[in-house]
Specification:
Blueprint (H helix, E strand, L loop, with lengths): L6 H9 L29 H14 L3 H12 L19 H6 L8 H18 L4 H10 L1 H6 L5 H11 L3
Helix pairs in contact: 2-3, 2-5, 5-6, 6-8
Length: about 160
């Protein structure tokens, strides 16, 4: 885990008379943090609470659900992939229909559909979260037909399951 300078010392550099410029605004101050810890522009605390709420309702780990949304859409409810996946959890059209999602860009519907689908996959694979995540990403049919999923699919599942 990276170490950061003392936060108060960091802020003091911005409030001492010799370093404060009249044109400087609070939004100009960048806090020291790794790129991986920065929140994408579409993230909001309300969305974070909604992700947690819907993950718990679906019976999946809220932190894993958050990683899924971050990796799939960068918290953008309007995200669309080249392959036709839509929304926060990047639901494919067939999954949208299967999960009864009417508006895949609606955050609540998309999260319910995506997390519900992931829970179905976890149950289908007897609690094997990584296998369920590989099926979520690559499709259950591909998982069933593959001897070994591609490295990118396995890495995707490990990243979301948080098992490096």
């Amino acid at each position: 885990m990276p170490t950061y300078p003392n936060f108060l010392q960091f802020l003091r550099q911005w409030v001492t008379p010799e370093t404060v410029e009249p044109s400087r605004r609070l939004t100009d101050i960048t806090l020291p943090m790794s790129e991986a810890d920065r929140m994408p522009p579409a993230w909001t605390p309300q969305l974070e609470r909604l992700i947690e709420q819907e993950a718990l309702a679906a019976g999946i780990d809220p932190q894993m659900a958050d990683r899924l949304v971050r990796i799939e859409s960068q918290y953008n409810p309007l995200a669309r992939s080249r392959r036709g996946a839509i929304g926060l959890t990047q639901l494919m059209p067939i999954t949208i229909k299967e999960m009864g999602v009417v508006d895949p860009t609606d955050p609540v519907q998309n999260l319910r559909g995506g997390f519900g689908y992931l829970k179905k996959l976890i149950d289908r694979y007897d609690g094997d979260v990584e296998k369920a995540l590989m099926a979520y990403n690559w499709g259950p049919r591909n998982i069933a037909n593959a001897i070994t999923p591609p490295p990118a699919v396995r890495a995707y599942a490990r990243n979301i399951a948080n098992r490096q």
